[in-house]
Amino acid sequence: MSLADRQDTLPAAWEGGMGSAGDYIALLKPRVMSLVIFTAFVGMMLAPGNVHPVIAVVAILCIAVGAGASGALNMWYDADIDRVMSRTAKRPIPAGKVTPDEALAFGITLSIGSVLTLGLLVNWFAGAFLAFTIFFYAVVYTMWLKRSTPQNIVIGGAAGAFPPMIGWAAVTGNVSLESFVLFLIIFMWTPPHFWALALFKKGDYETAGVPMMPVMAGETVTRHNILAYSILLAPIGVAPYFLGYASIAYGMMAGALGLAFVALAYDVWRKREGDVARVACVRLFKFSLYYLFLLFAGLLAESLVKGFVA
Known about the structure:
flat; 2 domains; mainly alpha; Tetracycline Repressor, domain 2
Protein backbone atom coordinates (compact mmCIF):
# COMPACT_ATOMS: atom_id res chain seq x y z
CA MET A 1 0.00 0.00 0.00
CA SER A 2 1.40 3.40 -1.00
CA LEU A 3 1.81 6.29 1.41
CA ALA A 4 -1.10 8.11 -0.23
CA ASP A 5 -3.33 5.04 0.02
CA ARG A 6 -2.42 4.54 3.67
CA GLN A 7 -3.19 8.14 4.52
CA ASP A 8 -6.59 7.75 2.86
CA THR A 9 -7.51 5.47 5.77
CA LEU A 10 -7.07 8.36 8.19
CA PRO A 11 -9.67 10.97 9.22
CA ALA A 12 -10.75 12.78 6.08
CA ALA A 13 -11.90 16.08 7.56
CA TRP A 14 -8.95 17.63 9.32
CA GLU A 15 -8.91 21.36 9.85
CA GLY A 16 -5.27 22.26 9.44
CA GLY A 17 -3.68 24.33 12.16
CA MET A 18 -6.20 23.32 14.82
CA GLY A 19 -3.72 21.31 16.88
CA SER A 20 -2.83 22.71 20.28
CA ALA A 21 0.67 23.16 21.67
CA GLY A 22 0.09 19.96 23.63
CA ASP A 23 -0.65 18.06 20.42
CA TYR A 24 2.65 19.16 18.90
CA ILE A 25 4.49 18.27 22.09
CA ALA A 26 2.88 14.82 21.88
CA LEU A 27 4.32 14.45 18.37
CA LEU A 28 7.79 14.69 19.93
CA LYS A 29 7.21 11.54 22.01
CA PRO A 30 8.21 13.29 25.27
CA ARG A 31 8.68 10.06 27.25
CA VAL A 32 11.16 8.77 24.68
CA MET A 33 12.74 12.22 24.53
CA SER A 34 13.31 12.20 28.30
CA LEU A 35 15.29 8.96 27.99
CA VAL A 36 17.32 10.44 25.14
CA ILE A 37 18.11 13.57 27.15
CA PHE A 38 19.15 11.57 30.18
CA THR A 39 21.43 9.11 28.37
CA ALA A 40 22.97 11.87 26.22
CA PHE A 41 23.68 13.90 29.36
CA VAL A 42 25.38 10.90 30.97
CA GLY A 43 27.50 10.50 27.85
CA MET A 44 28.55 14.14 28.09
CA MET A 45 29.38 13.87 31.78
CA LEU A 46 31.50 10.74 31.32
CA ALA A 47 33.43 12.11 28.35
CA PRO A 48 36.98 13.31 29.04
CA GLY A 49 37.56 17.03 28.75
CA ASN A 50 35.50 20.08 29.52
CA VAL A 51 32.80 21.95 27.69
CA HIS A 52 31.34 25.37 28.51
CA PRO A 53 28.02 25.02 30.40
CA VAL A 54 26.19 27.06 27.74
CA ILE A 55 27.53 24.82 24.98
CA ALA A 56 26.53 21.77 27.02
CA VAL A 57 22.96 23.08 27.35
CA VAL A 58 22.84 23.83 23.62
CA ALA A 59 24.06 20.31 22.84
CA ILE A 60 21.46 18.65 25.07
CA LEU A 61 18.68 20.81 23.63
CA CYS A 62 19.71 19.96 20.07
CA ILE A 63 19.86 16.24 20.83
CA ALA A 64 16.44 16.46 22.50
CA VAL A 65 14.91 18.36 19.57
CA GLY A 66 16.49 15.93 17.11
CA ALA A 67 14.95 13.03 19.02
CA GLY A 68 11.59 14.80 19.01
CA ALA A 69 11.89 15.39 15.27
CA SER A 70 12.45 11.66 14.78
CA GLY A 71 9.31 11.00 16.82
CA ALA A 72 7.25 13.41 14.71
CA LEU A 73 8.47 11.82 11.46
CA ASN A 74 7.72 8.39 12.89
CA MET A 75 4.16 9.43 13.78
CA TRP A 76 3.69 10.99 10.34
CA TYR A 77 4.65 7.79 8.53
CA ASP A 78 2.98 5.40 10.97
CA ALA A 79 -0.31 7.28 11.31
CA ASP A 80 -2.23 4.50 9.55
CA ILE A 81 -1.12 1.75 11.92
CA ASP A 82 -1.32 4.07 14.94
CA ARG A 83 -5.02 4.45 14.20
CA VAL A 84 -5.76 0.74 14.61
CA MET A 85 -3.58 0.05 17.66
CA SER A 86 -5.17 0.63 21.05
CA ARG A 87 -2.11 2.19 22.69
CA THR A 88 -1.53 4.67 19.83
CA ALA A 89 -5.03 5.49 18.55
CA LYS A 90 -5.17 8.74 20.53
CA ARG A 91 -1.99 10.16 19.07
CA PRO A 92 -2.45 13.57 17.40
CA ILE A 93 -2.59 12.43 13.77
CA PRO A 94 -5.01 9.46 14.01
CA ALA A 95 -7.09 11.51 16.46
CA GLY A 96 -7.47 14.18 13.76
CA LYS A 97 -5.81 16.96 15.76
CA VAL A 98 -2.78 17.42 13.50
CA THR A 99 -2.66 16.71 9.76
CA PRO A 100 0.03 14.49 8.23
CA ASP A 101 1.42 17.46 6.27
CA GLU A 102 1.71 19.51 9.46
CA ALA A 103 3.48 16.69 11.26
CA LEU A 104 5.87 16.16 8.33
CA ALA A 105 6.74 19.86 8.11
CA PHE A 106 7.19 20.00 11.87
CA GLY A 107 9.53 17.00 11.89
CA ILE A 108 11.63 18.18 8.95
CA THR A 109 11.98 21.70 10.35
CA LEU A 110 13.09 20.44 13.76
CA SER A 111 15.49 17.94 12.16
CA ILE A 112 17.26 20.56 10.07
CA GLY A 113 17.30 23.12 12.87
CA SER A 114 18.70 20.75 15.50
CA VAL A 115 21.45 19.38 13.23
CA LEU A 116 22.59 22.79 11.98
CA THR A 117 22.57 24.30 15.46
CA LEU A 118 24.54 21.41 16.94
CA GLY A 119 27.04 21.55 14.10
CA LEU A 120 27.51 25.33 14.15
CA LEU A 121 27.61 25.89 17.91
CA VAL A 122 29.13 22.62 19.20
CA ASN A 123 30.97 20.61 16.55
CA TRP A 124 30.17 19.15 13.16
CA PHE A 125 31.01 15.58 14.12
CA ALA A 126 28.24 15.64 16.72
CA GLY A 127 25.94 17.39 14.24
CA ALA A 128 26.55 14.75 11.57
CA PHE A 129 26.02 11.99 14.13
CA LEU A 130 22.67 13.52 15.11
CA ALA A 131 21.66 13.75 11.44
CA PHE A 132 22.55 10.09 10.93
CA THR A 133 20.53 9.12 14.02
CA ILE A 134 17.43 10.97 12.79
CA PHE A 135 17.80 9.35 9.37
CA PHE A 136 18.30 5.91 10.91
CA TYR A 137 15.16 6.15 13.05
CA ALA A 138 12.89 7.85 10.54
CA VAL A 139 13.97 6.07 7.35
CA VAL A 140 15.88 2.87 8.14
CA TYR A 141 13.70 1.81 11.08
CA THR A 142 10.29 3.45 10.53
CA MET A 143 10.01 3.31 6.74
CA TRP A 144 11.92 0.10 6.07
CA LEU A 145 12.57 -2.30 8.95
CA LYS A 146 9.44 -1.86 11.04
CA ARG A 147 7.11 -3.27 8.38
CA SER A 148 9.47 -5.72 6.72
CA THR A 149 11.16 -7.92 9.31
CA PRO A 150 10.61 -9.34 12.81
CA GLN A 151 14.17 -8.17 13.51
CA ASN A 152 12.93 -4.58 13.21
CA ILE A 153 13.50 -3.65 16.83
CA VAL A 154 16.89 -5.38 16.98
CA ILE A 155 18.44 -3.32 14.17
CA GLY A 156 16.24 -0.25 14.57
CA GLY A 157 17.03 -0.12 18.28
CA ALA A 158 20.41 1.33 17.38
CA ALA A 159 18.75 4.72 16.86
CA GLY A 160 17.72 4.87 20.51
CA ALA A 161 21.19 3.76 21.61
CA PHE A 162 23.12 6.53 19.81
CA PRO A 163 22.35 9.52 22.15
CA PRO A 164 25.08 8.82 24.76
CA MET A 165 27.59 8.60 21.91
CA ILE A 166 26.34 11.91 20.52
CA GLY A 167 26.67 13.44 23.99
CA TRP A 168 30.22 12.10 24.20
CA ALA A 169 30.98 13.48 20.72
CA ALA A 170 29.65 16.89 21.72
CA VAL A 171 32.47 17.12 24.28
CA THR A 172 35.31 15.33 22.50
CA GLY A 173 34.52 15.65 18.81
CA ASN A 174 34.84 11.87 18.41
CA VAL A 175 33.69 8.56 19.89
CA SER A 176 35.53 5.89 21.88
CA LEU A 177 35.27 2.41 23.31
CA GLU A 178 33.74 3.83 26.50
CA SER A 179 30.98 5.59 24.58
CA PHE A 180 30.41 2.48 22.47
CA VAL A 181 29.78 0.47 25.65
CA LEU A 182 27.06 2.97 26.62
CA PHE A 183 25.56 2.43 23.18
CA LEU A 184 25.82 -1.33 23.55
CA ILE A 185 23.99 -1.35 26.89
CA ILE A 186 20.96 0.37 25.35
CA PHE A 187 21.22 -1.61 22.12
CA MET A 188 21.11 -4.97 23.91
CA TRP A 189 18.45 -3.74 26.35
CA THR A 190 16.02 -2.68 23.62
CA PRO A 191 14.90 -6.10 22.24
CA PRO A 192 13.88 -7.74 25.55
CA HIS A 193 12.29 -4.46 26.67
CA PHE A 194 10.09 -4.13 23.56
CA TRP A 195 9.44 -7.82 23.03
CA ALA A 196 8.05 -8.05 26.56
CA LEU A 197 5.59 -5.32 25.54
CA ALA A 198 4.93 -6.97 22.17
CA LEU A 199 4.00 -10.28 23.82
CA PHE A 200 1.02 -8.80 25.67
CA LYS A 201 0.18 -6.38 22.83
CA LYS A 202 0.43 -9.05 20.14
CA GLY A 203 -3.15 -8.50 18.98
CA ASP A 204 -2.47 -4.84 18.25
CA TYR A 205 0.50 -5.69 16.04
CA GLU A 206 -1.45 -8.42 14.24
CA THR A 207 -4.29 -5.97 13.50
CA ALA A 208 -1.84 -3.33 12.26
CA GLY A 209 0.13 -5.82 10.16
CA VAL A 210 3.42 -5.03 11.88
CA PRO A 211 5.73 -8.09 11.75
CA MET A 212 6.86 -8.01 15.36
CA MET A 213 8.63 -11.12 16.63
CA PRO A 214 5.59 -12.63 18.46
CA VAL A 215 3.44 -12.23 15.34
CA MET A 216 5.89 -13.67 12.80
CA ALA A 217 7.98 -16.15 14.76
CA GLY A 218 5.55 -16.98 17.54
CA GLU A 219 5.51 -16.43 21.27
CA THR A 220 7.82 -19.33 22.10
CA VAL A 221 10.61 -18.07 19.84
CA THR A 222 10.12 -14.58 21.23
CA ARG A 223 10.53 -15.88 24.77
CA HIS A 224 13.73 -17.70 23.76
CA ASN A 225 15.08 -14.46 22.31
CA ILE A 226 14.10 -12.39 25.35
CA LEU A 227 16.01 -14.76 27.62
CA ALA A 228 19.04 -14.91 25.30
CA TYR A 229 19.32 -11.12 24.98
CA SER A 230 18.87 -10.70 28.73
CA ILE A 231 21.71 -13.13 29.44
CA LEU A 232 23.95 -11.22 27.01
CA LEU A 233 22.91 -7.86 28.45
CA ALA A 234 23.80 -8.66 32.08
CA PRO A 235 27.63 -8.69 31.67
CA ILE A 236 27.54 -5.75 29.25
CA GLY A 237 25.87 -3.70 31.97
CA VAL A 238 28.88 -4.40 34.21
CA ALA A 239 31.41 -3.57 31.46
CA PRO A 240 32.03 0.06 32.58
CA TYR A 241 33.54 -1.36 35.80
CA PHE A 242 35.75 -3.84 33.96
CA LEU A 243 36.91 -1.09 31.59
CA GLY A 244 37.93 1.06 34.54
CA TYR A 245 35.59 4.04 34.27
CA ALA A 246 33.16 2.94 36.97
CA SER A 247 33.78 1.83 40.54
CA ILE A 248 33.26 -1.55 42.16
CA ALA A 249 30.10 -0.13 43.74
CA TYR A 250 28.67 0.42 40.26
CA GLY A 251 29.87 -3.03 39.21
CA MET A 252 28.08 -4.69 42.13
CA MET A 253 24.88 -2.73 41.49
CA ALA A 254 24.96 -3.48 37.75
CA GLY A 255 25.64 -7.15 38.46
CA ALA A 256 22.69 -7.41 40.85
CA LEU A 257 20.39 -5.60 38.42
CA GLY A 258 21.54 -7.85 35.60
CA LEU A 259 20.78 -10.97 37.60
CA ALA A 260 17.32 -9.63 38.43
CA PHE A 261 16.76 -8.87 34.73
CA VAL A 262 17.71 -12.42 33.76
CA ALA A 263 15.48 -13.85 36.51
CA LEU A 264 12.49 -11.89 35.23
CA ALA A 265 13.28 -12.89 31.64
CA TYR A 266 13.42 -16.52 32.76
CA ASP A 267 10.00 -16.01 34.37
CA VAL A 268 8.67 -14.79 31.00
CA TRP A 269 10.27 -17.81 29.30
CA ARG A 270 8.78 -20.21 31.85
CA LYS A 271 5.23 -18.83 32.16
CA ARG A 272 3.59 -19.10 28.77
CA GLU A 273 -0.18 -19.17 29.27
CA GLY A 274 -2.94 -17.16 30.93
CA ASP A 275 -2.73 -14.26 33.32
CA VAL A 276 0.53 -15.42 34.87
CA ALA A 277 2.23 -15.07 31.47
CA ARG A 278 0.85 -11.57 31.01
CA VAL A 279 1.94 -10.54 34.51
CA ALA A 280 5.44 -11.87 33.87
CA CYS A 281 5.71 -9.80 30.67
CA VAL A 282 4.46 -6.65 32.39
CA ARG A 283 6.91 -7.13 35.27
CA LEU A 284 9.86 -7.50 32.90
CA PHE A 285 8.78 -4.50 30.83
CA LYS A 286 8.47 -2.26 33.89
CA PHE A 287 11.67 -3.51 35.51
CA SER A 288 13.60 -2.96 32.28
CA LEU A 289 12.84 0.77 32.56
CA TYR A 290 14.23 0.89 36.09
CA TYR A 291 17.22 -1.20 35.02
CA LEU A 292 18.35 1.21 32.34
CA PHE A 293 17.68 4.28 34.46
CA LEU A 294 19.61 2.92 37.45
CA LEU A 295 22.64 1.93 35.37
CA PHE A 296 22.95 5.37 33.81
CA ALA A 297 22.08 7.12 37.08
CA GLY A 298 24.85 5.17 38.78
CA LEU A 299 27.36 6.22 36.13
CA LEU A 300 26.19 9.82 36.38
CA ALA A 301 26.44 9.86 40.18
CA GLU A 302 29.99 8.54 40.07
CA SER A 303 30.94 11.14 37.48
CA LEU A 304 29.53 13.95 39.62
CA VAL A 305 31.32 12.66 42.73
CA LYS A 306 34.63 12.47 40.86
CA GLY A 307 34.13 15.99 39.56
CA PHE A 308 33.34 17.30 43.03
CA VAL A 309 36.35 15.57 44.62
CA ALA A 310 38.64 16.78 41.85
